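Thread amino acids onto this structure.
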């Protein structure tokens, strides 16, 4: 790792963004670089290298139409993003990084050597496509280049410096970059369709040291009232290091799903320092899967209903 790459990674580790990385077929050196620079735990929530086809099928929950293509990279990044949401505290900035590539190998590959990188956040998707000049580099050189591209992608997501030279072969290799921005309405539609598992609504960014355990109060919050606030405050006072979080499910067990207008109106009540997470899980056992190692707070009526069930 040269000094330029190290400086970029140091900037990444100083940013508030945390990420889950899922890679297949290349960019393997990037993981070693990220983990060898101090404060890696400030960035990396989890890293997975899928070298078997079965590993990718298990991650995606299906057999991909093609292992190395733009669509598969986007799907990997989406799975990584949902995993990052589950592993992080409410209000944290998280990203899912997906990489899939086919590089120099033995025996030689018939088709192009290429890679696709995707980075998913709550409100955006970064996409990078690169076809390599076949025969211009050995396997190590191609893996080095794709590792630089992965770190560059992560730097862009974190909003830090990305001054990593890719040293592309002039006139032959060209990096294609695209960024999609999702509106709040598009995010909610993705939630209702099950594409993403939750949406964070908060005007503050929690750091990794803000709290050690979520304290979650679930409700319909129609409206949010003083009783909700006092109940959550009381629960946090009993749980040392507790990070308060309100949870609103867009899907109800015995009622129609909330509409986009309803969700927006209720989420707007949480814009002044409170953290709200909107999920698509109506049942507590499913909420517990979304928020592992969390304390759930329930009122008397909810407690009686749960006991009856």
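Threaded sequence (309 positions):
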């Amino acid at each position: 790792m040269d000094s330029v790459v190290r400086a970029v990674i140091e900037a990444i580790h100083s940013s508030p963004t945390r990420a889950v990385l899922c890679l297949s077929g290349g960019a393997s050196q990037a993981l070693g670089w990220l983990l060898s620079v101090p404060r890696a735990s400030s960035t990396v929530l989890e890293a997975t290298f899928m070298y078997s086809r079965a590993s990718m099928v298990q991650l995606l929950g299906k057999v991909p139409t093609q292992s190395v293509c733009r669509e598969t990279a986007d799907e990997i990044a989406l799975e990584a993003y949902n995993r990052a949401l589950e592993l992080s505290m409410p209000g944290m900035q998280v990203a899912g990084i997906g990489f899939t590539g086919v590089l120099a190998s033995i025996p030689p590959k018939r088709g192009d050597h290429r890679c696709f990188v995707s980075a998913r956040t709550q409100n955006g998707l970064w996409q990078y496509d690169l076809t390599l000049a076949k025969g211009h580099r050995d396997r190590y050189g191609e893996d080095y280049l794709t590792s630089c591209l992965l770190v560059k992608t992560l730097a862009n997501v974190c909003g830090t410096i990305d001054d990593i030279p890719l040293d592309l072969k002039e006139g032959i290799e060209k990096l294609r970059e695209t960024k999609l921005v999702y509106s709040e309405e598009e995010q909610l539609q993705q939630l209702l369709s099950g594409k993403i598992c939750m949406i964070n609504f908060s005007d503050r960014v929690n750091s990794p040291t803000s709290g050690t355990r979520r304290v979650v109060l679930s409700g319909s919050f129609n409206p949010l009232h003083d009783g909700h606030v006092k109940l959550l405050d009381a629960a946090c006072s009993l749980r040392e290091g507790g990070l308060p979080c309100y949870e609103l499910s867009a899907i109800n067990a015995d009622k129609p799903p909330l509409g986009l207008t309803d969700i927006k109106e209720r989420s707007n009540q949480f814009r002044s320092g409170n953290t709200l997470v909107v999920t698509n899980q109506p049942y507590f056992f499913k909420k517990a899967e979304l928020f592992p190692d969390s304390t759930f707070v329930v009122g008397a009526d909810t407690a009686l209903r749960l006991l009856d069930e």
